[in-house]
Amino acid sequence: MSHPVLQRQYLFLHNVRFPMFAKYSEPHLYGSLVGQTRNLYIPSTGNVTLGAWHYLPKAFYDAHVNELQNTQAEALNALFDEALRTYPTYVFLHGNGLNRAASFRVRTCTDIAQELNANVFAIDYRGYGDSTGYPTEQGVVDDAYSAVQYVRERSRSATADSGPGIAIVGQSLGTGIGAQTALRMYREGQHLDALILLAAFKELRPMVTEFSLGGVIPLLRPLEWLPIKDFLLDTFLQYRFHSLEALTEILNGTNDPKSVNQPVIIIMHALDDAVINVSHSEAMFTRALNITGATNTMSGYHIWSSSLPDFGYVRSIMSKTARPPEHRGVVPNSRFVLPRSALFTFVELEKGGHDHLLRGNVDALRLMMPTYMLGDDVK
After folding, report:
1. Which stretches make up the AB hydrolase-1 domain (predicted)?
2. Judging by beta carbons within 10 Å of its beta carbon (0-12, 13-18, 19+), is residue 326 exposed, middle or buried?
3. φ, ψ of residue 160 in degrees (nearest 5)
4. Edge-to-edge strand order for the sheet containing 264-270?
5. Gap between the Cα atoms of 341 and 58, Å rounded
6. C-alpha span between 132 and 67 (Å, rounded)
7. Does this model's pTM top 0.85?
8. pLDDT (tens digit, 9 = 90+) per residue, 19-31?
9. Domains and CATH numbers, the chain
10. Chain-centre distance of CA 132, in angstroms?
11. Which of the four pLDDT bands, split at 50, 70 and 90, describes residue 303?
């Protein structure tokens, strides 16, 4: 596993192509509504072309369903671009292996499009699906950044300097890519409205021996027994994905009045995740506590926590000037109250495994997002 090519195959699993022979130009075959999703291709660095699916917000789809199902390509693109200018967008970054047509990924995207009434822009990184090239750490971060910039450029109208909000949603490997993309935007002074990490890992190094293929086969667990394990990893590991350090730099901006506003950060991790242990996300929340000093009475932040039946344990770092959710009142048709727009929220789900954290829980995500990141008020 010291060879860079073998490491790339092990980490990205980009040659595990499923569904096989996917018909990317017909996304409705994989779970979205007819006309709700367009297939498109966008440029990235190194002359790479990325395959992507753009899911429409449910309300926009319902209002234009006849046009969407009976219009030629050029007019269709105009409709999809109109949705980007009027509704918030969630850029979805998937985990390793498979492609954007995998059923559980389509389910996540359609749930967000429907329940949050927002665009979802899902890419296949270089080397995945019908995207060209092969994955590297810098390359896949460039791909995610290119997707965000594509959305940013098309969400602005001719008369406005800014458009609707943009969030990044990363799952598994996509959390490492999403954290690095958010850090790049932060360093460049670009505002990101929310960063949502599903089954996150703090960095790649411990995952080398912790990772189990399919949550069952611990491929490199024997490395733990070698006295020279640390030497081997330090010397030969080509990939890092330092998510914890990326979040640390972003959160340190809370103490810098000159920095760009930090995104709302939400981490969701299931206790029954057999692939990435929940301790990784716990470490991220602990780091956020240390940076904000939320346990200190002199801090401008405090901790809101609640154990919610049939859901999980929620801890949020909130500004002391924000109204607690109990004082806001229960949102109609919601199962419970949750802090909206908290600086950092960690949700330990009772169940959800590794790939299905949002199944049945998009309503909870809805309660935690800033209201402008929900497309409900778009006319």
Report:
1. 91-264
2. exposed
3. -130, 140
4. 37-43, 49-55, 119-123, 89-93, 166-171, 194-198, 264-270, 344-349, 312-319, 301-308
5. 23
6. 32
7. yes
8. 999 999 999 999 9
9. 4-373 (3.40.50.1820)
10. 22
11. very high
